[in-house]
Protein backbone atom coordinates (compact mmCIF):
# COMPACT_ATOMS: atom_id res chain seq x y z
CA UNK A 1 0.00 0.00 0.00
CA UNK A 2 1.51 3.32 -1.10
CA UNK A 3 1.63 6.50 0.92
CA UNK A 4 -1.11 9.05 1.01
CA UNK A 5 0.55 12.27 -0.11
CA UNK A 6 -0.47 15.60 1.33
CA UNK A 7 -0.09 18.58 -1.00
CA UNK A 8 -0.06 22.23 0.02
CA UNK A 9 -0.23 24.29 -3.16
CA UNK A 10 0.02 28.05 -3.63
CA UNK A 11 -3.17 29.35 -5.23
CA UNK A 12 -3.68 32.78 -6.71
CA UNK A 13 -5.02 33.86 -10.05
CA UNK A 14 -4.18 37.55 -10.62
CA UNK A 15 -6.67 37.59 -13.53
CA UNK A 16 -9.56 36.62 -11.24
CA UNK A 17 -11.21 39.57 -9.58
CA UNK A 18 -11.19 39.36 -5.78
CA UNK A 19 -8.86 36.33 -5.67
CA UNK A 20 -6.38 36.31 -2.77
CA UNK A 21 -3.09 34.39 -2.41
CA UNK A 22 -3.50 31.32 -0.20
CA UNK A 23 -2.27 27.75 0.30
CA UNK A 24 -4.71 24.96 -0.59
CA UNK A 25 -4.49 21.38 0.66
CA UNK A 26 -5.10 18.19 -1.33
CA UNK A 27 -4.45 14.51 -0.66
CA UNK A 28 -3.60 11.87 -3.23
CA UNK A 29 -2.65 8.17 -3.14
CA UNK A 30 0.91 7.67 -4.31
CA UNK A 31 1.43 5.22 -7.19
CA UNK A 32 4.68 3.51 -8.26
CA UNK A 33 7.04 5.80 -10.21
CA UNK A 34 4.76 8.78 -9.67
CA UNK A 35 6.27 12.11 -10.71
CA UNK A 36 4.97 15.51 -9.68
CA UNK A 37 3.78 15.87 -13.28
CA UNK A 38 1.54 12.80 -12.84
CA UNK A 39 0.40 13.90 -9.38
CA UNK A 40 -0.55 17.44 -10.46
CA UNK A 41 -2.41 16.17 -13.52
CA UNK A 42 -4.34 13.71 -11.37
CA UNK A 43 -5.20 16.48 -8.91
CA UNK A 44 -6.46 18.64 -11.78
CA UNK A 45 -8.40 15.81 -13.45
CA UNK A 46 -9.88 14.24 -10.33
CA UNK A 47 -10.18 17.02 -7.75
CA UNK A 48 -9.73 20.57 -9.00
CA UNK A 49 -9.93 21.60 -12.67
CA UNK A 50 -9.05 25.20 -11.73
CA UNK A 51 -5.44 24.34 -10.74
CA UNK A 52 -2.98 26.22 -13.01
CA UNK A 53 0.46 24.80 -13.88
CA UNK A 54 2.60 24.35 -17.02
CA UNK A 55 3.95 21.29 -18.80
CA UNK A 56 5.00 20.57 -22.37
CA UNK A 57 7.58 17.86 -22.91
CA UNK A 58 7.38 15.81 -19.68
CA UNK A 59 11.01 14.91 -20.34
CA UNK A 60 13.14 17.67 -18.78
CA UNK A 61 13.57 19.44 -22.12
CA UNK A 62 11.16 22.39 -22.33
CA UNK A 63 11.72 23.87 -18.85
CA UNK A 64 8.02 24.78 -18.53
CA UNK A 65 7.29 22.77 -15.38
CA UNK A 66 9.83 24.46 -13.07
CA UNK A 67 8.40 25.31 -9.64
CA UNK A 68 9.53 25.51 -6.03
CA UNK A 69 9.23 22.02 -4.54
CA UNK A 70 9.56 21.96 -0.75
CA UNK A 71 11.59 25.17 -0.88
CA UNK A 72 13.89 24.20 -3.77
CA UNK A 73 13.43 25.14 -7.45
CA UNK A 74 13.19 22.07 -9.69
CA UNK A 75 11.38 20.44 -12.60
CA UNK A 76 8.10 18.78 -11.65
CA UNK A 77 8.31 16.26 -14.49
CA UNK A 78 11.74 15.09 -13.28
CA UNK A 79 10.78 14.92 -9.59
CA UNK A 80 9.71 11.50 -8.30
CA UNK A 81 7.34 11.67 -5.33
CA UNK A 82 9.16 8.72 -3.73
CA UNK A 83 12.22 10.98 -3.33
CA UNK A 84 10.15 13.59 -1.47
CA UNK A 85 8.56 13.59 1.98
CA UNK A 86 4.85 12.72 2.16
CA UNK A 87 4.01 16.39 2.65
CA UNK A 88 4.72 18.40 -0.50
CA UNK A 89 4.64 22.18 -0.47
CA UNK A 90 4.56 23.75 -3.94
CA UNK A 91 5.07 27.41 -4.87
CA UNK A 92 5.56 29.16 -8.22
CA UNK A 93 9.09 30.33 -9.09
CA UNK A 94 9.79 33.76 -7.59
CA UNK A 95 11.34 36.59 -9.70
CA UNK A 96 9.15 35.83 -12.76
CA UNK A 97 5.70 37.24 -13.48
CA UNK A 98 2.98 35.06 -12.00
CA UNK A 99 0.45 33.76 -14.52
CA UNK A 100 -1.56 31.88 -11.89
CA UNK A 101 -0.99 29.28 -9.11
CA UNK A 102 2.20 27.40 -10.13
CA UNK A 103 2.55 28.95 -13.58
CA UNK A 104 4.97 31.83 -14.28
CA UNK A 105 6.04 33.64 -17.43
CA UNK A 106 9.77 32.92 -17.87
CA UNK A 107 9.65 33.75 -21.61
CA UNK A 108 9.41 37.53 -21.24
CA UNK A 109 12.23 37.57 -18.67
CA UNK A 110 14.57 35.55 -20.91
CA UNK A 111 13.70 37.53 -24.03
CA UNK A 112 14.39 40.86 -22.28
CA UNK A 113 17.60 39.59 -20.69
CA UNK A 114 18.93 38.18 -23.94
CA UNK A 115 18.15 41.48 -25.71
CA UNK A 116 19.96 43.37 -22.94
CA UNK A 117 23.02 41.10 -23.15
CA UNK A 118 22.96 41.13 -26.96
CA UNK A 119 22.80 37.38 -27.01
CA UNK A 120 23.65 36.67 -30.62
CA UNK A 121 26.82 36.20 -32.70
CA UNK A 122 28.25 39.64 -33.57
CA UNK A 123 30.20 39.50 -36.82
CA UNK A 124 31.00 41.81 -39.73
CA UNK A 125 31.37 38.88 -42.11
CA UNK A 126 28.80 38.87 -44.89
CA UNK A 127 27.11 35.48 -45.31
CA UNK A 128 28.06 33.83 -48.59
CA UNK A 129 25.83 30.81 -49.33
CA UNK A 130 28.24 29.57 -52.02
CA UNK A 131 31.14 29.21 -49.56
CA UNK A 132 31.93 25.97 -47.77
CA UNK A 133 30.98 25.93 -44.09
CA UNK A 134 33.74 27.24 -41.84
CA UNK A 135 35.23 24.53 -39.68
CA UNK A 136 35.47 24.82 -35.91
CA UNK A 137 37.70 22.86 -33.54
CA UNK A 138 35.82 19.92 -32.03
CA UNK A 139 36.86 21.03 -28.56
CA UNK A 140 35.40 24.54 -29.04
CA UNK A 141 32.22 23.14 -30.63
CA UNK A 142 31.75 20.83 -27.66
CA UNK A 143 32.29 23.70 -25.22
CA UNK A 144 29.61 25.75 -27.01
CA UNK A 145 27.27 22.76 -27.13
CA UNK A 146 27.69 22.27 -23.37
CA UNK A 147 26.68 25.89 -22.68
CA UNK A 148 23.77 25.69 -25.14
CA UNK A 149 22.13 22.93 -23.07
CA UNK A 150 20.27 25.52 -20.95
CA UNK A 151 16.52 24.88 -21.20
CA UNK A 152 15.60 28.34 -19.81
CA UNK A 153 13.64 26.80 -16.94
CA UNK A 154 14.47 29.72 -14.61
CA UNK A 155 15.47 27.54 -11.61
CA UNK A 156 18.90 29.22 -11.31
CA UNK A 157 17.31 32.68 -11.34
CA UNK A 158 14.77 31.76 -8.67
CA UNK A 159 17.46 30.31 -6.42
CA UNK A 160 19.69 33.39 -6.79
CA UNK A 161 19.71 35.78 -3.82
CA UNK A 162 20.87 38.69 -5.99
CA UNK A 163 18.17 38.15 -8.64
CA UNK A 164 15.55 38.04 -5.90
CA UNK A 165 16.74 41.35 -4.47
CA UNK A 166 17.34 43.12 -7.78
CA UNK A 167 15.21 42.59 -10.85
CA UNK A 168 17.88 44.11 -13.13
CA UNK A 169 20.47 41.41 -12.22
CA UNK A 170 21.27 39.24 -15.25
CA UNK A 171 21.49 35.98 -13.34
CA UNK A 172 23.43 32.82 -14.09
CA UNK A 173 21.45 31.83 -17.20
CA UNK A 174 22.15 35.12 -19.01
CA UNK A 175 25.80 35.20 -17.89
CA UNK A 176 26.20 31.59 -19.00
CA UNK A 177 24.82 32.60 -22.37
CA UNK A 178 27.33 35.44 -22.65
CA UNK A 179 30.12 32.94 -21.86
CA UNK A 180 28.84 30.88 -24.79
CA UNK A 181 29.54 33.82 -27.17
CA UNK A 182 32.90 34.64 -25.56
CA UNK A 183 34.19 31.16 -26.46
CA UNK A 184 32.62 31.24 -29.95
CA UNK A 185 35.36 32.21 -32.48
CA UNK A 186 32.70 33.57 -34.88
CA UNK A 187 31.75 36.33 -32.42
CA UNK A 188 34.06 39.28 -33.07
CA UNK A 189 33.27 41.24 -29.92
CA UNK A 190 36.30 42.36 -27.91
CA UNK A 191 36.66 42.03 -24.14
CA UNK A 192 36.02 45.79 -23.96
CA UNK A 193 32.68 45.36 -25.70
CA UNK A 194 31.68 42.48 -23.40
CA UNK A 195 32.75 44.63 -20.46
CA UNK A 196 30.28 47.32 -21.56
CA UNK A 197 27.48 44.76 -21.28
CA UNK A 198 28.35 42.64 -18.22
CA UNK A 199 31.18 44.48 -16.42
CA UNK A 200 28.89 46.05 -13.84
CA UNK A 201 26.75 45.29 -10.77
CA UNK A 202 23.84 44.09 -12.90
CA UNK A 203 26.21 41.62 -14.51
CA UNK A 204 29.20 39.62 -13.33
CA UNK A 205 30.22 41.97 -10.49
CA UNK A 206 26.76 41.69 -8.87
CA UNK A 207 27.15 37.92 -8.49
CA UNK A 208 27.88 36.91 -4.88
CA UNK A 209 29.37 33.59 -5.95
CA UNK A 210 27.46 31.40 -3.50
CA UNK A 211 26.40 29.14 -6.38
CA UNK A 212 22.83 28.28 -5.49
CA UNK A 213 22.36 28.53 -9.27
CA UNK A 214 24.58 25.55 -10.03
CA UNK A 215 23.13 23.53 -7.13
CA UNK A 216 19.62 23.67 -8.57
CA UNK A 217 20.30 23.58 -12.34
CA UNK A 218 18.42 20.47 -13.55
CA UNK A 219 20.71 20.15 -16.57
CA UNK A 220 23.88 20.23 -14.48
CA UNK A 221 25.37 23.17 -16.38
CA UNK A 222 28.88 24.16 -15.21
CA UNK A 223 27.67 27.58 -14.03
CA UNK A 224 30.41 27.89 -11.40
CA UNK A 225 33.12 27.56 -14.06
CA UNK A 226 31.43 30.05 -16.38
CA UNK A 227 30.88 32.67 -13.68
CA UNK A 228 34.52 32.29 -12.59
CA UNK A 229 35.71 32.51 -16.21
CA UNK A 230 33.75 35.74 -16.84
CA UNK A 231 34.74 37.26 -13.49
CA UNK A 232 38.46 36.73 -14.25
CA UNK A 233 38.11 38.03 -17.80
CA UNK A 234 36.12 41.11 -16.82
CA UNK A 235 38.39 41.74 -13.79
CA UNK A 236 41.43 41.86 -16.09
CA UNK A 237 39.57 44.19 -18.48
CA UNK A 238 38.66 46.49 -15.55
CA UNK A 239 42.33 46.64 -14.47
CA UNK A 240 43.44 47.42 -18.03
CA UNK A 241 40.86 50.23 -18.17
CA UNK A 242 42.19 51.72 -14.91
CA UNK A 243 45.81 51.70 -16.11
CA UNK A 244 44.83 53.05 -19.51
CA UNK A 245 43.18 56.08 -17.86
CA UNK A 246 46.31 56.90 -15.81
S1 LIG B 1 26.57 32.46 -7.79
FE1 LIG B 1 25.90 34.45 -8.60
S2 LIG B 1 24.38 33.95 -10.18
FE2 LIG B 1 24.68 32.06 -8.93
S3 LIG B 1 23.07 32.15 -7.36
FE3 LIG B 1 24.88 33.14 -6.48
S4 LIG B 1 24.67 35.35 -6.95
FE4 LIG B 1 23.24 34.23 -8.29
S1 LIG C 1 21.18 27.46 -16.45
FE1 LIG C 1 20.17 25.58 -15.69
S2 LIG C 1 18.77 26.30 -14.08
FE2 LIG C 1 19.36 28.09 -15.28
S3 LIG C 1 17.74 28.35 -16.79
FE3 LIG C 1 19.38 27.11 -17.75
S4 LIG C 1 18.82 24.99 -17.36
FE4 LIG C 1 17.57 26.22 -15.99
S1 LIG D 1 7.49 19.40 -18.84
FE1 LIG D 1 9.20 20.02 -20.04
S2 LIG D 1 10.79 20.15 -18.58
FE2 LIG D 1 9.12 19.38 -17.42
From TrEMBL:
Q: Which residues form the 4Fe-4S ferredoxin-type domain?
A: 141-170
Whether Oxidoreductase counts among this entry's keywords is yes
One example of a Gene Ontology biological process annotation: respiratory electron transport chain
Q: Which residues are the signal sequence here?
A: none
What UniProt keywords are attached to this protein's entry?
2Fe-2S, 3Fe-4S, 4Fe-4S, Iron, Iron-sulfur, Metal-binding, Oxidoreductase, Tricarboxylic acid cycle
Enzyme Commission code(s) on record? 1.3.5.1
The cross-references to PROSITE patterns, in alphabetical order and at most eight, read: 2FE2S_FER_1, 4FE4S_FER_1, 4FE4S_FER_2
Which cofactors are named for this entry?
[4Fe-4S] cluster; [2Fe-2S] cluster; [3Fe-4S] cluster
In terms of superkingdom, the source organism counts as: Bacteria
| InterPro entries (alphabetical) | 2Fe-2S_ferredoxin-like_sf, 2Fe2S_fd_BS, 4Fe4S_Fe-S-bd, 4Fe4S_Fe_S_CS, Beta-grasp_dom_sf, Helical_ferredxn, SDH/FRD_Iron-Sulfur, Succ_DH/fum_Rdtase_Fe-S
Q: Name one GO molecular function term.
A: succinate dehydrogenase (quinone) activity
How does the record describe its quaternary structure?
Part of an enzyme complex containing three subunits: a flavoprotein (frdA), an iron-sulfur protein (frdB), and diheme cytochrome b (frdC).
What family, per the record? Belongs to the succinate dehydrogenase/fumarate reductase iron-sulfur protein family.
Q: What is this protein called?
A: succinate dehydrogenase
Organism annotation:
Pseudodesulfovibrio indicus
